[in-house]
Amino acid sequence: MASPPPQSSPSIYEQLRPLFYPKSVAVVGVSQDAWKPGTTMLRALQRFGFQGALYPISNRGGELMGLQVFPSIAALPEAVDLAFLFVPAPALPSVVRECREKGVRTVVAFTGGFAETGTEAGRALEAELLAEFDGTFRMVGPNCLGLYCPSGGVTQHPGEGYPRKSGEVSFIAQSGGISEDFARATPNFGFYSSKVISYGNASDVNECDLLEYMGADPETKIITMYIEGPRNGRKFARLLKAVGADKPIIIWKGGLTPQGALAAGSHTGSLAGSLEVWVALLRQVGAVPVGSLEEVLDTAAAFHFLGGHRDLRVGYVCAGGGNSVAAADSAYRTGLVLPRLSSETSGKIAALLPPVGATSTNPVDVLAPMPAPSALKGVLEAMAESGEVDLIIVDRVVLSSELRKLMNYSDQSPEPDEPWLSDIPIDVKKRFGLPVMVVLRENLDPNGNVMVEAERLRLRRYYQENEVAVYPTPDRAFRALGHVVAHNRRGSQSGEAS
Amino acid sequence: MSDIVGDNPALEVIEAARSAGRRSLSEHESKAVLQAYGIPVTREELVADGDGLPAALCTFDLPVVLKIDSPDILHKTEAGLVALGCTTTAETETAFRRIMDDARANYPGASINGVLIQEMVTGTVAECIVGMKKDPQFGPTILFGLGGIFVEVFGDVALRVAPVSEADVRDMVQEIKAYKILTGARGRPKADIPAIEDTLLKMSRLALELEPYLVEIDINPFMVGCEDCGAKAADALIVLEAK
């Protein structure tokens, strides 16, 4: 996708790079009131660890957080790469003009009160704002929450506590609140963000620019999006296809119901479009359609952990017959297959399990959530070395001694809990080179003991750090895996066809 | 636009209708536009008055279909201005007079071009619908489905945004729930699926090239024959943008 930029004008990549990797940042609209948005933005940047030059701007001058406050953009000693604008809507056009005259390269306008209000005055103000654009600089917003790029040292408006660690997943969001939810949630799903940006009304920088940027961005390997309505549908469709040929694009389209479409109109002034055409388009361009933030995150995590996985056969190990049946249904719905195991493999597994009540075919039912560690290890090894499945999911098995203690399972196991119990899925994954996913179910304690939840979360983090994807329900695990497999199979099919 | 389409005969038909202040093409005109893009249509001849009927009939094998041809009468069947399966010359002449008389009597303000004498399509395996509709965000979309209850009751259609690729049109045909009817379910003959795919590709090209003039295209029914037998638009309607 990194096509050579035209000689005449800088590429979208060059135009937008200062947003994510600014050497200098101005925050316009700071105040001595610690809680005001301009001030919180300045503080967030400082605490997040922005390394470049930081210029607070307020017509009252003085000093703030150890920094000299400048009276205006014009008074700055340099033309900054990026200006964050926290000024009242009526003042925004003149501040943007000042930025242009100074040679500021990019601006982010947080203020709302433009076209999204649906009023004549709001639309007129947005038109006045747009009249300032001459192609020499770019603006994100208005009506947005800015952006987060840990490798560039910049964070969103309320984002001083966001992770400093950078990842390979980027999120392009029309909504500020949803972009914040994404940035906060990612580490809990086992991956980190490269870039998160909310673009609000898309008056200048829109979904097409950002999609093109993420396509060219070497740090971004997986693209996720929340979109209400594109500014330029045809260009968006072309870009989805072109960028999607190299990187998976996971799209959550908001406003697909009549009520949602109405809400989108007042949120970002978007025309939501018809459900049928969107469904057809996403299928046509090979994007991954999802319907909630949870599904965006689940699916991005699956692409992060499983990459190019394209095999349908899943070995599923669970505790309990009903849960095995339910999971087999989930697998079928997502297009995945739980193949029957050969009698040889099945025999090996049967020898490890209780003679009555367990099931040694796929789905394997180990009977109770606290199988002996050696039995669990043997079952996963037998599956992995059989060559009869391409991925293993372990569900509803209690996978740490601590959790077994907390759940009063310790004295129900035929052999003592081994310290390596938790490592079984990681070990099998490494030794056999077979992807393993773990389902750690929530709400395990009947009395709401938070220590149980704490141990579950610790275990989740432990698996994720060891490159094992974790989901809270088998449904979500299969849904995410199904997206990855379908996407990768589709990609290779259309490759063969054309 | 004119330098893109050159001396496109489809554009001549469209321009003539627009010059007359019309927002839709008659069946005959619609088919001329489709034919200009290589979409197969039924062989037909427009006969303006009864004197021309015998000469026209010489060139057809009986039975034939007769339909009123008027840009002002869009729902010909509902108006009773269609005669299917006329098997003799006498029967055809009677039907011709009846259609002309009824049209004049019941649609006094309508501009009537005459009656279309049309080949009666035989050997149809599946009656399909091929359509085009402009989406406000993504431009022309191409639609495919099986006619009758499949589209009208079950909404069983496949949709794509133009331009469509060969892979896209293959997916479209396979995507509809009634696909098995095309592949010979329950001992039925297999339909000429490549002929459908070819028409969908041509519809995509037509829609993009003539986009500024078009609102909607409806080929219904699109009569699909058995394997290697081809397919034909038996009726068509094109709705135009206002000038």
Please describe what this structure looks like.
The complex is a heterodimer of chains A (498) and B (243). Chain A has 498 residues and is an alpha/beta fold. Chain A folds into two domains: 12-303, Rossmann fold (3-Layer(aba) Sandwich); 308-491, Rossmann fold (3-Layer(aba) Sandwich), CATH 3.40.50. Helices cover 41% and strands 14% of the residues of chain A. In chain A, the strands form four sheets. A six-stranded mixed β-sheet of chain A has the order 8-10-9-11-12-13, sandwiched between helices. Chain A is elongated, with a radius of gyration of 26 Å. Mean pLDDT of chain A is 92; it is low at 494-498. Chain B is α+β, with helices and mostly antiparallel strands and 243 residues long. Chain B has two domains: 9-119, 2-Layer Sandwich (Dna Ligase, domain 1), CATH 3.30.1490.20; 126-240, ATP-grasp fold, B domain (D-amino Acid Aminotransferase, Chain A, domain 1). Chain B has helices at 2-5, 9-19, 27-36, 53-58, 89-106, 149-152, 166-175, 179-182, 193-209; strands at residues 44-47, 64-69, 82-86, 114-119, 126-135, 139-146, 157-161, 214-224, 231-233, 236-240. In chain B, strands 5, 6, 7, 8, 9 and 10 form a six-stranded antiparallel β-sheet that branches. Chain B has a four-stranded antiparallel β-sheet with strand order 1-4-2-3. The longest helix of chain B has 18 residues, at 89-106. The two termini of chain B are 14 Å apart. In chain B, 40% of the residues are buried. Chains A and B meet through helix 7 and helix 9 of A and strand 7 and helix 7 of B.
